[in-house]
Amino acid sequence: MSRTVYVNGAYLPEEEATVSIFDRGFLMADAVYEVTSVLDGKLIDFAGHAARLARSLGELEMAAPVTDADLLTIHRELVARNEVVDGMVYLQITRGNPGDRDFAYPAASVPGTVVLFTQAKPGLADNPQAKVGMKVVTVEDQRWGRRDIKTVQLLFPSMAKMMAKAAHVDDAWLVTEGMVNEGTSNNAYIVKGGRIITRHLGHEILHGITRAAVLRFAREAQMEVEERAFSVEEAKGADEAFITSASAFVMPVVEVDGVALGSGKPGPVAARLREIYLEEVRKTAI
Ligand code: PMP
Questions:
Q1: Which of 52, 61, 93, 250 is found 20 to 30 A from 109 (Cα to Cα)?
Q2: Could you tell me the residue range of the domain that residue 101 belongs to?
Q3: 82: Cβ below 6 Å to ligand 1?
Q4: Residues annotated as catalytic (active site), given as ranges
């Protein structure tokens, strides 16, 4: 079935939606994005995603072509028009089409390009992987130095995902000097002696919206949280591990570089956090 998508003010059938070949998102990866989950037809943590979008735009000196209120309306309209029950809304804002290719940013009068589309994922919250867990391999992180800005420069994460596939595992953890930064499209955590350990914020990782919520819920549940870098060796000796992202929520990791963690089965901390997360975010879904 053809989706209805949104491009620069218009709701269109996906076959009719177009963006210029001179768009800086296409030529320069000069664009930022957000992915917001939908559960039971409602948006999960929309405010968090809108706030990070504003930050990404600000860091790149890109004007917001739409207000947060308009963005919420467009998200809801697409969910309704496409009858999405469970799934995601993808949003991308580029620096627009200056009419030619040039490294310098165009004048501020060139409007940004705004694209949104939905992806239906029936049963998103009941992903069977949560019962068996994921396997990961570690690879050297070769991304640029501002991973805190959510740009569409996703070539290295795509390459790392292919390395994971070639190794017959589910994902790759990206590593710098033996320390784990994050997954290809998620934040990474280990659990040791009941303590939840995840890399501190900085330019090296994306500031996950799910990460912020999960750490808040963990602290509220009196769990101990340590925000610091952890090594690949430490991960291999962990009791359990997991990842978080807007579309995977909390997903257990049961193997790192061929080494089974703990019992080799999803751990209790990941299972509990997944349960708490889903319960809490459903309460504030809009
Ligand atoms: N790190 C990276 C590199 C990501 O691409 C993502 C998901 N886009 C995340 C972390 C998780 O962020 P969020 O919880 O906001 O989806």
A1: 52
A2: 4-121
A3: no
A4: 150
What is the CATH classification number for the domain harbouring 161? 3.20.10.10
CB neighbour class for 250 (10 Å; exposed up to 12, middle 13-18, buried from 19): buried
173 — phi, psi (to 5°)?
-100, 130
User: What residues have CB less than 8 Å from 177, skipping those under 6 apart?
Assistant: none
Q: What would the pLDDT profile of 106-152 be if each residue is shown by its tens digit?
A: 999 999 999 999 999 999 999 999 999 999 999 999 999 999 999 99
Beta-bridge partner residues of 242: 189, 252
> Do residues 82 and 120 make contact, with C-beta atoms less than 8 angstroms apart?
yes
Are 271 and 142 part of one and the same domain? yes
Distance between CA 191 and CA 208 in Å, rounded? 18
Which of 245, 249, 250 to probe ligand 1 with, by most ligand atoms within 8 A of CB?
245
